[in-house]
Amino acid sequence: MTNNKEEKMATIVPINKEITEEKVTTVIAEDLHIKGSLRFESSLLIMGSLEGEITSEGLLVVGPTAKINATIVTKRLISHGEIQGDVTASEQVVLKKTATQMGNITTQNIIVESGSLLNGSITMKGTEGASK
Amino acid sequence: MTDIGLSASNIDETNVVTTLADDLHIAGTISSKSSLMIKCSLDGEIVSEGLLIIGPTAKVKAKVTTKNLVSHGEIIGDVTASEQVVLKGTAVQMGNITTPDIIVESGSLFNGSITMKGKESASG
């Protein structure tokens, strides 16, 4: 199912390549809405909407059309879309210029591009939490 | 607009009106109407109406209010920037940030919350 979708996506959304920069094994297209929890190991590109929870040990790419209302635990996150919920990324979070993030972020390394919208708190390792 | 700041990985001081060198220590409030570069340590408060650059050697423990902030150094305290905040790869930020536009580079360390305009503040 994902394979078919992937092939279709390749023609429908050629921007995918630009967006991910890396190979993505599963693509959830724009017209798909998921309610529940999602778990994957390698990589996932979400263009659709999701409500619930995402758990992964790999790369999560949130496409520009995506709307996500979820708690996210992953290794790497690259977001071009809208996320409402807390994000924990063990390696890196990248918020691209079209990204909207409403919720807290816990990570080791973060990149935020100009133009992105971010409301929430960021917790990073290093130095005992002198935050507030 | 923030040309000076954005290209400041090789920090260009030519357009900076005031530079506070790194052998200086300030306790108190400083206010500036144009651009200011801080390389020293500072305890207190900074109010700037222009571009504020925090150098890589700077240690600032202050409440910062400015238009543009480009930080390469360490800031402990809340930052409010009316235009933009740029945290460079060497920056350490411990405290909250309020701004309409932000750039955070890889390598920077940030603990605190960000509040931006746009949408009803659904912040956590």
SSE diagram, text form:
The complex is a heterodimer of chains A (132) and B (124).
Chain A: H1 2-12, H2 15-20, E1 26-28, E2 33-40, E3 43-46, E4 49-56, E5 59-62, E6 67-79, E7 82-84, E8 87-95, E9 100-102, E10 105-112, E11 117-124
Parallel strand pairs in A: 1-3, 2-4, 3-5, 4-6, 5-6, 6-7, 6-8, 7-9, 8-10, 9-11, 10-11
Chain B: H1 3-6, E1 18-20, E2 25-32, E3 36-38, E4 41-48, E5 51-54, E6 59-71, E7 74-76, E8 79-87, E9 92-94, E10 97-98, E11 102-104, E12 109-115
Parallel strand pairs in B: 1-3, 2-4, 3-5, 4-6, 5-6, 6-7, 6-8, 7-9, 8-10, 8-11, 9-12, 10-12
Question: How would you characterize the overall build of this protein?
Answer:
The complex is a heterodimer of chains A (132) and B (124). Chain A is built from 2 helices and 11 strands. With 132 residues, chain A is mainly beta. Chain A has one domain (2-114). A 6-stranded parallel barrel of chain A has the order 6-7-9-11-10-8. With 124 residues, chain B is mainly beta. In chain B, 3% of the residues lie in helices and 53% in strands. Chain B contains 1 helix and 12 strands; from the N terminus they run αββββββββββββ. A 6-stranded parallel barrel of chain B has the order 6-7-9-12-10-8. Chain B is globular. Chain B starts with a helix and ends in a 9-residue tail after the last strand. The chains are: A mainly beta (132), B mainly beta (124).
Order of helices and strands of chain A: HHEEEEEEEEEEE
Ends apart, CA distance between termini of chain B: 31 Å
Termini separation of chain A (Å)? 46 Å
How many domain units of chain A?
1
Radius of gyration of chain B: 13 Å
Low-confidence runs of at least 5 consecutive residues of chain B: 1-9, 119-124
Number of domains of chain B: 1
Number of strands of chain B: 12
| Helix-and-strand structural type of chain A | mainly beta
Overall average residue pLDDT of chain B: 86
- SS element count, helices of chain A: 2
